[in-house]
Write a structure and sequence with these properties.
This protein is an alpha+beta fold and 148 residues long. Helices cover 39% and strands 26% of the residues. The protein has a 4-stranded antiparallel β-sheet with strand order 4-5-3-6, sandwiched between helices. It has a two-stranded antiparallel sheet with strand order 1-2. Strand 1 and strand 2 form a beta hairpin. The longest helix is centred in the middle third of the chain and has 19 residues. The N and C termini lie far apart (49 Å). The relative contact order is 0.21.
Length: 148
């Protein structure tokens, strides 16, 4: 929670961004690390605190905290624009997995969450645990398939 003037705020957000047409473009760990680094760098310029980023093959989850004055659509569009351009530039092999040279879907999901527990609502701790487990179950299944 942060104190600003005469009010206390604690807005946390959960963003899910998909690769266009759910193409499996985030399979290379180097691309994933590059994406995460770029998101952290962009977030600093927007005064956004990244709580967690995890990727699966065709999407990423981003948990972040920001001031109430954050222009969320501008922040998200900046992430999409810069990461798309930089991934295509630095990892040309990703272009072969894309449709018309587009990395991200136009659509995204965003929800706000807090740290207080309300009946029937998802808390920040539950979201963190969920995001941390992204991609782990798929790789566990692949390990099982390979051992058989």
């Amino acid at each position: 929670m942060d104190l600003k003037g005469h009010f206390l705020y604690s807005p946390h957000y959960h963003l899910i961004q998909y690769v266009k047409y759910r193409r499996k473009a985030l399979t290379n760990p180097l691309v994933v690390d590059f994406l995460k680094t770029k998101i952290y760098n962009i977030s600093e310029t927007f005064d956004v605190e990244v709580l967690n980023i995890e990727c699966d093959e065709d999407y990423f989850h981003l948990l972040f905290s920001a001031k109430p004055s954050l222009d969320i659509p501008k922040y998200i569009n900046t992430i999409k624009t810069i990461t798309s351009r930089e991934i295509r530039k630095n990892f040309p092999e990703v272009k072969t997995m894309l449709w018309k040279d587009t990395v991200w879907s136009r659509s995204y999901f965003i929800a706000s969450t807090g740290q207080v527990i309300f009946e029937g609502q998802v808390t920040l701790d539950i979201l963190k645990q969920y995001v941390e487990n992204q991609g782990k179950y798929a790789s566990d299944e692949e390990d099982k398939d390979q051992s058989n």
